[in-house]
Write a structure and sequence with these properties.
This is Lipocalin-like domain-containing protein. The structure is a single chain. The chain is α+β, with helices and mostly antiparallel strands and 150 residues long. The mean pLDDT is 80. It starts with a helix and ends with a strand.
Length: 150
């Protein structure tokens, strides 16, 4: 009986010791890193996720060439290739205290992710080394995920 208790204590101790190690968290890319990174930066659309469906899966986006290009002088371009035509919208960006990147377009465009066709603003934020555009979620649109092109 003593042997069984000793073996159980040893196994329990081994489990506690092995579960004690913290997993190293992946390095997160924040708006501070964005401001300090080399420019120009290109962020390409890589995935999307439905906003109004609980636990919706992130779906890889392939073949759709959409990207943001950010310049050091706080200007940007949003490019989208549809069939053989490339559409470009331009504007300026700023970074607010909540770590959002606010894009202000020079003119109205179909490329602007907004529920209001007249809006010239988009809001982007960082999460897990990705730039996320969630401007459409209030009108049942998708989350759009962009990755930095190295």
């Amino acid at each position: 009986m003593k042997n069984i208790v000793t073996i159980m204590l040893c196994l329990f101790s081994l489990i506690l010791i092995s579960c004690d190690k913290d997993e190293q968290e992946p390095e997160k890319f924040t708006v501070v890193d964005f401001s300090a990174t080399n420019f120009p930066q290109e962020w390409k659309l890589v995935a999307s996720r439905a906003a109004m469906i609980p636990n919706a899966k992130v779906t890889k986006v392939e073949g759709k060439a959409e990207s943001y290009i950010f310049n050091e002088d706080f200007t940007f371009q949003k490019k989208s290739k549809i069939e053989d035509e490339t559409i470009i919208a331009e504007g300026t960006y700023s970074i607010d205290e909540r770590e959002f990147i606010i894009l202000e377009y020079l003119e109205e465009s179909d490329l602007i992710a907004s529920c209001n066709r007249k809006s010239k603003l988009e809001y982007l934020h960082f999460s897990d080394s990705q730039l996320i555009n969630d401007s459409w979620i209030v009108c049942d649109g998708p989350y759009l995920y962009y990755k930095l092109v190295e």
